Each structure stands twice: as C-alpha cells, then as structure tokens.
Amino acid sequence: MNEADIQGIKTVLQTPKNIVIIPHRNPDGDAIGSTLALWHYLKKGQHNATIIAPNDYPEFLKWMPGENEIVKFDYEKDRAKEILNDANVIFTLDFNDLSRIGDMATTVSDCKATFIMIDHHQQPSDYAKFMYSDTSMSSTCEMVYNFISYLGDEALINAEMATCMYTGIMTDTGSFRFKATTSTTHRIIANLMDKGAENASIHNEIYDTNRLSRLQLLGCALKNLVVLEAYSTVYITISKDELVRYDFKKGDTEGFVNYGLSLKGIKFAAIFIENLQEPYVKMSLRSKGDFSVNEFARAHFNGGGHTNAAGGRSDDSMEKTIEKFIKILPAYKEELS
Question: Same structural domain for residues 181 and 304?
C-alpha cells in the first residue's frame, strides 16, 4: 500500500463507523479467515462491523472464532440489505470484481459507502476508493496482517485474529507448499503462532474431519481421472448423480484437483463438476510452472484467478464442456510440453 492510501484509511477509521466486510461467493478458508480477522480488528476499534457472506460455506470453516456472527445474504436478504444501506465503509476481501459476489452485486454497487479492497488476484476492477492489491501475496490473510501492521496496530493482534489469519494462509498456500509462499509468509506465520494461533489444532479442524462419504466421493473422482499425455494434462469429472450418491456437502470437493496435479510429468489439471441446483459445470484449474490457468480460464471459461490456480464455469453439458476443453489444448501444446 502507498502512504497516501494508508493515511486516507487511517482518517476514515479514526472515528467509529458502520462497516460491512464482504468475501466472495462460495467463500473458502482465505475468504472467511481474512474477513473474520479484519472483523475482530475493527471491533477492537469500536466500529460497528458486520460480515455479510453472499452464501453459505463448508462446515470445516464453521469452528472459526466469530463465525456464528456472519450474516448470509442468501438466507437473510432483507436484514443484509438494511445493513449494507446503513454502511459508511465496505471492505471487499479476497476478490476484485463485484461479479464475484453473485446476487449481492446489485445491492452493493448501489451503496454510497467508501469501498476498500484487499485482494491478491489478477486484473482488479476499479470500484474501490482504496485498493490494496498485490498478486505476489500468498493470500488475502497475509495482506490483512500487513494491513493491520501498516495502520500501526500489529500489537493489537490477538489469538482470535491470529487463528483466522493462520487458517487462511495455510489453506491458500496448500499448507505452505505453493510458489507464493515466501520467507516473509513464514515469518508472519511464526508471529501468528506467537500471538496464539495453534497450528496443530487448526490443521486438524480443516483437514482431519472427513466423513466416509467424502472419502468415497474422492475415490469416485480419482476413478474418473483421465490423463492426456500429449498435453501433460489430466482432468477429473464428477456428475450430479455421483454427487448425490456420495451425499455431497458444500466443500467436499475442495482440493480434489490437486491429486491430478501430483502425477509425475503433469503440468495442468482440471476438475469439472456438475452443479446440483443449476444447469452449469463448475471447474477448478491448477498448473505448475509458468502455464497460466488464469489466462486460460479468462479466455475460454468465464473465469480467472491466479497464474497457477483458477476457476471457471461452462453453461454447456458435461460432455460438451469436456469436448471443448480437449479441442482447446492443441493451441497450448508448446507451453505444456
């Protein structure tokens, strides 16, 4: 962040405000962790802060301190709209375009509040007055740690904030193994542990609470894995019927795509999942090296994200989506070889 923005935000926050904090639709560990960490921080500053999530999120995130205070727009639209209309300040975290919040976008775009963006994805829109945008960062939680530090309040970080930020950094870095994990990231993690984040307990809450049906769904996904050796690519499919058969719950397919990328010699992995409620196919894309799944998703599947991790969607059937995906790959053969 530049000094002018830091001073501008300090001025905005120097007196108590009505503040709303918004993560993206289908929030993950980094989105929930960053919004909760910022919420705890703003409450310490005597602000009237509320997190409004566009929709629900996985059970494995619902242990986090303060989670029970989150308002879900899908379930409480009237209450959420009233809170948004009364907001003086709106923070948007872990996304950089209002299209990422689904049905909330219309209401949010009409708000007269001061917008502050904190995000690490590529190609941000310019809706916010203050933008802390840095694609080199491991996670939005790492950025929230920096944000609090820039405001001169690092000493205010307590165990609750530390737990939330540790969770988001851990999940968005793939337990600290992705390229964006820097030595600075590890120093921040050490500081968060000193502040009270219990690393073993957090890891257990996120990764060690599987249901039998989720493991069976994983087995189904791996059985459906297809290798395209000519393009160093794999893809996985999961149909509606398979989701129903294995009692799918939100978040159950988190991380499945990484199993494909773990194969030796593979540079590009994709998972295609039919949506249970609406007629579209959701996809997650992962890559190694310089192959940009962000650019691939933006060019072909109405998506985007990071260089090595992105998402997209297709309004075609699963069969036609896979057919399109395979037809596109020859154009990228040189990059993937």
Answer: no
Nearest alpha-carbon partner for 138 in 102, 94, 97, 105? 94
Q: Are residues 246 and 298 in the same domain?
A: yes
Residues 96, 132 contacting (CB under 8 angstroms): no
- pLDDT confidence tier of residue 54, bands split at 50, 70 and 90: very high
Does residue 192 sit in the same domain as residue 226?
no
CA trace torsion 49, 54, 55, 60 (10° rounding): -60
Q: How far apart are CA 68 and CA 163, in angstroms?
A: 15
What are the residues whose beta carbons fall under 8 Å from the beta carbon of 110, sequence distance 6 or more?
none
Q: What does 165-181 look like in DSSP terms, one character per residue?
A: HHHHHHHHTTTTTSTT-
- Given 149, 179, 207, the domain boundary residue is 207
Give the range of the structural domain holding residue 266, as residue numbers without chain letter.
212-336
**End position of a domain, from candidates 173, 207, 241:** 207
Say if CB 184 and CB 151 are below 8 A apart.
Answer: no
Q: What is the CATH number for 169?
A: 3.90.1640.10
CA atoms in the 13 A half-sphere facing the CB of 20: 27
Q: Determine the 3-state secondary structure of 68 from DSSP.
A: helix
Cα angle 283, 288, 292 (rounded to 5 degrees) comes to 60
* 1-42 residue pLDDT tens: 899 999 999 999 999 999 999 999 999 999 999 999 999 999
**What's this model's pTM, rounded to 2 decimal places?**
0.92
Judge contact between 143 and 137, C-beta under 8 A.
yes
CB 18 within 8 A of CB 86: yes
pLDDT digits (tens, 9 = 90+) for 273-326: 999 988 999 999 999 999 999 999 999 999 988 899 999 999 999 999 999 999
E strands in the chain: 18-22, 48-53, 71-72, 89-93, 114-119, 130-133, 226-228, 233-238, 268-274, 281-287, 304-305, 309-314
Q: Which tens digit of pLDDT belongs to each residue from 131-185?
A: 999 999 999 999 999 999 999 999 999 999 999 999 999 999 999 988 899 999 9
Task: Clarify whether residues 143 and 291 are in a common domain.
Answer: no
